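Message: Just now I want nothing more than another pair of eyes on a protein record. I am handing you a single protein, as its sequence and its fold in token form. As I understand it, each token names a local backbone shape. Take your time, and here it is.
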Amino acid sequence: MGTWMDQVTRGWLIYELTDSALQLGLVRGVQAIPLLLLSPVAGSFADRYSRKMQVVLTQVANGVLFGVTALLILTSLIQPWHVYVTAVLMAIVQVFLQPARAALISDAVPPKNLTNAIGLNAVVFNAARSTGPALAGVLIAKFGTGGAYAVQGTFFFLATIWTVQLRSARKAASGPHGHLMHGESFGQSILEGWKFSWRNEIVRTALLVVMFVSLFIGPFTTLLPVFARDILRVGAAGQGLLLTAMGVGALCSAVLIASAGDRLPRGMIMLGSVILYGFFTVVFAASHWFWLSMILMCVIGLCHVHSHALVQTIIQSYSPSEFRGRTMAVFHMSPVVLTLGAMLFGALSAAVGAQWAVASMGIVGALIMVVISVTLPGARLIR
């Protein structure tokens, strides 16, 4: 909730301070830099040291950052550079939080319940994505951005209290032969993580799937303002409804995964969902009817989470505990690829139009999944 609220609060704050649309983009852009540079280090930390302690420390750091920001706003000392500095610091903290928190799921539940657990995590994630920004908007309207940041900080401290109560089955960081990893340098540890991610065919396949989705299909939402205003002619309110429809589909998908668990043939559903994801984005690109587009966005949300959550399950299931933090760190680098994809979509849209850009990229993404399923037949057999 606190993280999703920040998506609204930080943008509103920088716009209040600068009245600059350019800086709205810049304050988000700077947060991609730590993700690109520090993800491998964060994954190595999660494999070498206590994941639970890493989660606790990063959540406390997030709470402090939000609390300091709230204090600066409420005392009228806030300046634009404060917003940028805290944005970068929060991005650094998030980079170290994500792989440790993701790997803790495998440490906390039996292997037979892992798919259910990750599905439940996706349910909570999408519920927070739906309600967090709305709550931030209400708080900003009633109490200003300072009040919203105070609540965000409180949420992180509450999360820390509950995290402290977790009991992890993982006691120490060890290498593949049972020896402690602490003798390895960080450089060696990072390199070994990348080697494992590439050499393990199942993990490599899952990572390739999420990276190709992030490059060729997922960034189509970047062009939603064009579709809402110029093609469907429904304006900003219509764009909001399209995103809501996608969120509803995503939530339904997460519930299905959490319910079905390991009864799912994960490889087939992962590849099939991405192929359908690409196909339905092509149909969306061709649609001129708003209600058809709403239905398509719901189905797209369903396909997105079915592919994304199952990729995460496969990576965690087929990564030994001593490598899980590093493989999840690679998985969490997909937003960097998503940013590159958004730039590619924008350039292609300028050249051939938004509809052709979305349709052509969707076709490429779907065809790549067909190629993977043909050239790597083992991917279809992943359980």
The chain has 15 helices and no strands. The mean pLDDT is 81. The radius of gyration is 21 Å.
